[in-house]
Amino acid sequence: MDAGRSIRNRRRGSLLYRLVNDGTEEEKVKGQPSATRTLRHRPPTECLAWARRQDVNCEVASSLKQPPSPQSKSKVFREDGIVSGYRNPQSSARDCLVSIFQLTNETLNIWTHFLPAWYFLWRLLVLWHSVDFYNEAYAWPLLVYMFFSCLYPFTSSCAHTFSTMSTHARHVCYFLDYGALSLYSLGCAITYRAYVMADRWINNALHTCFVPVAALNTLVCTTLSCYSRFLEVEQPRLSKTLRLIAFAYPFLFDNVPLFHRLFLCWGDDCSHNASVPTHYCHLLFAFLTCFLFASHLPERLAPGCFDYIGHSHQLFHICAVAGTHFQLEAVVADMGFRRSWLLAHAPLPSLGGTLGVTAAALLLNLLLIAAFIAALACAPGSSSFLLSSLADRVKPKAE
Hints:
The chain has a two-stranded antiparallel sheet. The protein is mainly alpha-helical. The protein is built from 16 helices and 2 strands. It is globular and about 60 Å long.
């Protein structure tokens, strides 16, 4: 009798081991229909309780592999060099909104983009009174640019606000943030084609295909940046590199006409005017933005000293907004200084080439983000797909 009971315990213990390690297994208990149970992501206490109900030796159950600890799951919420000031990673929407007015390591990240979003909206309203956006096709590229200049900081502030509702919500928030940044690069390309290209490049091959290529670049940028989040825990360096490439590539492409005009073009047909110093200011802040994003300075040199004020992401936000401000000033200046020449020699911006391309790129990027959200939601364990290792997700069938 005791020997038979010991054999049954060992068999049930082996079954529990497979349930905890493989995720699901069909359990057939005498007198009960077969049932599929998932214990992999259950707390250890639930596993032990199940063992007791099935008459499994608890010494066997307690020695089994345990689910990942909360500390391993919290890695996705932590940043290099930031030691304290983190919010609860399971905050409610109300908690997230209240945290805007509390001092955390995200507070200034939120405000350094929330306030500039309203500043750019104010600039748009001021321009609306002096520029006929309805009837003047020449002004349509500026309207597209202003729309995305308002959108990307607002989306960023919302992403930072609600990113601690859950691991799943964090990734969705940043998917949308990356999409807004991608579309901002399209707004830059449309205005640069319309107002910034040097006179000698007007009507050449690059001038003709510049906007369609920039629209495709938004899809590349959104794809790489969103995919990088799937590598964030397993391969953080590769994730960071992909994200850096995702945003550096459209920036470099968009600024090819500006680089040519400022550094490689000499002569009367190079459009050197009073906007050039402002363009230099924009490039300076763009370089600082890239440097801060890639370097994690200064918190990398003194972990814990810049948790609340002065860490790289806050400075990154400030430099990005300052760069956008100078870019706007330079574009508006070029739009005014070169108006007569461009109207005489360049084709007017078309509705399809400005608002049409913008609407198509917006729709395609939203569909792309929806696909990433679906991949996230359909993954085994949902958000745990982004937290568990590949070895844990793909188990050999021989086990």
